[in-house]
Amino acid sequence: MPPGPDREYFQFPGIQDQDTGHMELTPEQQQIGRENFLEAAAYSLTRRDLLKTAAAAGTGLGALYFGYETLRGKPVRTAFIGGGDEANVLITEHPPEYMEIVAIADPRPSNIERSFKGSHPEARIGLVRRLGQAKASEIQVFSDHLELLKNREALGLEAVVIAVPLSQHAPIALLCLEAGLHVLTEKLMAHNITQCKEMIRAADRHGMLLAVGHQRHYSVLYENANDLIQRGLLGDLKFLRAQWHRNNSFPGRDSWRKWDRDGDTRKDKEHLLQLEKSGRLKELGYDSARQLVDWRLYNATGGGLMAELGSHQMDACSIFLGKVHPLAVQGYGGKNFYGVKGVGPEENWVDDRDIDDHIYVTLEFPGRHFAEDRNDISIVTYSSINTNRFEPYGETVFGSRGTLIMKTEMEALLYKEATPTSSGGVEQRLWVIDSARDGGGPVLDSYNTTAPSAGAMMAQSGMGDKVSRGYREEMEHFCYCIRTGRNDLRCSGRVAMADAVMALTANLAMKHRKRIVFRDEWFDPASDLVPETDEQVTTT
Ligand SMILES: NC(=O)c1ccc[n+]([C@@H]2O[C@H](COP(=O)([O-])OP(=O)(O)OC[C@H]3O[C@@H](n4cnc5c(N)ncnc54)[C@H](O)[C@@H]3O)[C@@H](O)[C@H]2O)c1
């Protein structure tokens, strides 16, 4: 399992990192799939005239792919609000040529400490290793966003990155936008859709940029995959399957319950209980110190598996389906593991979490010809479970001409379907040729040598040895837009609100055990209609 934002969820004593591959594919078949994808990516890059430039650029491909340039002028003076797990990933990936971190705010001393010192040799290296001791020591520290905002003028602050628990995204973003600061907030955009709409309206009113951290919008890997899909390489897309499966079923190994077991939390406990007693935590939006730390477990502060994990993957699937809004959603979610008696860390343990530990969701999307033919529907299924991690997380696109597996945001595997005139399967080496029919769209064809083509090798070197998940590119483009006055963010508030509508309506479908039909107005920031108060949803 490669290092990444959710790596620690898998790292418990006694459980080895494992990569069981993908379903029943052998390592050789996976390698063939990877090489097939590179051949296809070479086709896409050539068609977009990106191949030579990509190979020449080597790294820093975001600008080339996503249409921005090296920043002219000073880096954007930015503060981090929240210094936890995700902020530390972003600190590691942040581009100093575009973004100057001038302050960091967090009420947890251990997280401030690790933001400077780091906590992982690659994924979270800390400000000192990223910037050097001298530069890092200029960064000012504040106890929370309220203290930070009091000092915004003295700091010459222009922008903030918000990486705090979900319930606080909107309240903090609104204060920052009103204070004249550009905002890049982590996903899920907000705790409910009313808040998403308030955020978009506030950004428009104050002329500020509002970006949201669904990083797949800035992943070169996903961009190449999507280009191939939109060119029709996989044929007709009727079924996409996404999953994020983890195994937290071992005693005391509940990865989202940190208050009781996490070393850093133990160091912070006294300080946080003091903040609870003084009433400061209430001012920051938390009922208790425990809720601040274990925020993912409770409805008041988090949004469950769908908000934390599923929203990324629904985002990817909706991009692959042509950035369309879904038609309807249904699903089942339950506390099927932690809710069962006797599972907790001690005898007679009653688990107090609100969120489900197993969820299964089905979304209906319109196909390209849906307007003329109501049978033209594409289905996305999503599951996130806590008792088995055999399959790595990712999305699989089952097209009528081929199958694409997006694995752990780090690699893509491509296979061909057999047709009446040609074979297919997982042993077949492929390349892409222009078909003679239908105006010459791309088709998969078998390739009779094991040596990769020159194009595939260039695609490999063009994409870089270390695949970027998109965090760096997302921050580069955010700062570039601030400096140039452009507003062509790939994951703007409007785009991210659609992801929030999908994730939060899926939660409502599971809660009310019903199939919910999406309304266009839910996706429209100008409308006050939102799923959480819609009669269709709330009446039984
Ligand atoms: N894009 C991704 O891949 C990805 C991955 C993981 C998490 N996230 C998102 O990042 C956000 C943070 O998640 P995390 O895993 O870092 O959680 P975390 O609990 O590790 O860190 C949150 C931090 O925010 C701090 N905080 C809370 N209120 C604050 C305030 N008012 N002012 C300043 N700091 C405050 C907390 O003390 C804590 O240190 C969440 O929205 C989560 O969904 C995104």
Question: How are the SSEs placed, and which strands pair?
Answer:
Layout: H1 27-47, H2 51-57, H3 62-66, E1 76-81, H4 85-93, E2 99-105, H5 109-117, H6 126-131, H7 133-136, E3 140-142, H8 145-150, H9 152-155, E4 159-162, H10 169-178, E5 182-185, H11 193-206, E6 210-212, H12 220-230, E7 237-243, H13 263-278, H14 280-283, H15 289-293, H16 304-320, E8 328-334, E9 358-366, E10 377-384, E11 394-399, E12 402-407, E13 411-416, E14 430-434, E15 442-446, H17 454-463, H18 471-484, H19 493-512, E16 516-517, H20 535-538
Parallel strand pairs: 1-2, 1-4, 2-3, 4-5, 5-6, 7-10
Antiparallel strand pairs: 7-11, 8-9, 8-16, 9-10, 11-12, 12-13, 14-15
The structure holds nicotinamide-adenine-dinucleotide.
Nicotinamide-adenine-dinucleotide binds near residues 84, 107, 111 and 213.
In short:
With 540 residues, the protein is an alpha/beta fold. The protein is built from 20 helices and 16 strands. It has 3 domains: 62-214 and 471-492, 3-Layer(aba) Sandwich (Rossmann fold), CATH 3.40.50; 236-255 and 298-399 and 493-540, Dihydrodipicolinate Reductase, domain 2 (2-Layer Sandwich); 258-293, no CATH class.
Top keywords for this entry?
binds nicotinamide-adenine-dinucleotide; Rossmann fold; alpha/beta; 6-stranded parallel β-sheet; 540 residues; 16% strand; 16 strands; single chain; 3 domains; disordered N terminus; 8-stranded mixed β-sheet; Dihydrodipicolinate Reductase, domain 2
